[in-house]
Protein: Pre-mRNA-processing factor 17
Organism: Coemansia pectinata
Amino acid sequence: MHVPTELRQAEVSSCFAPKRLVKEWHNAHAGGVSAIRFIPDSGHLLLSSGMDGQVKIFDTHSSLALLRTYTGHSKAVRDINFAPDGTSFLSSSYDTYTKLWDVETGQCRQRFSAKGRVPYVAKFYPEDPNIFLVGQGDKKIVQWDIRANEIVQEYDQHLGAINSLTFFDSNRRFISTSDDKTMRVWEFGIPVVIKLVADPSMHSVPAVALHPNQKWFVGQSMDNRIVVYSAGERIKPHKRKEFSGHLTAGFACQPSFSPDGKFLTSGDSEGQVWCWDWQTTRVMTKWKAHEKVTIATAWHPRESSRVATCSWDGTIKYWD
């Protein structure tokens, strides 16, 4: 858990697109990798979850080795998310449990289940490490309190399974996306939709990423585009700005921004990684990374050109 000294002081210099493969972790997860996350702030550890029901953590700074495997889920793990301080994380699995793990000791601290509902996504509330939200397959978003071990709030407006939850506006509000092809904006703690983003031409948006300057967010739309929305007082689509060229229809490929906000990357269904310039929306570079769909890309929060990618072929690759 100790943060390397050079990553503490490191200011993010201007980023550039990765050019070479640094490390490949073969068969990281049998049956495919579902998500990858860098530890917040320092980024010296990489967490991954897979279809084998396991969560693994890798060193991305010096040894590039597998450090620990967290075993405890009986079915595939769909999503993982670190606590804001990086000492614990949540894993949500198709076995209906969301589990809270201690990163350092590897123990499962607590497990949460809402009457057999499948948790699709679990996110800590960034202001309070004892509160987290779970987006479920039964169209509800529930708010858990870790201390009381109970659901303290329900956000129930969507008409389909919840795909993603993203906090913005200094964590006062969050946006949820769902299979019902809408986005809904909520004020944290108040179960009333402030804004409904819906349009007959809209497709489902299963994966969302917030721009580092907090003014925009992008969503992976199911019609092979990445759409852009403003994240200010009014949530509105940026009509003239979209990122296209890749084929993702049917896959929730998680997009990712470089730490300075200059580049946007996404995987596609053919195993490629695409890198766009944020200002001009032009494709800067693309390369073949995996045999099957590249389901997630993640930029290192401190280093200028390090990107991790993972795929349903079971591998995780680390690029520089």
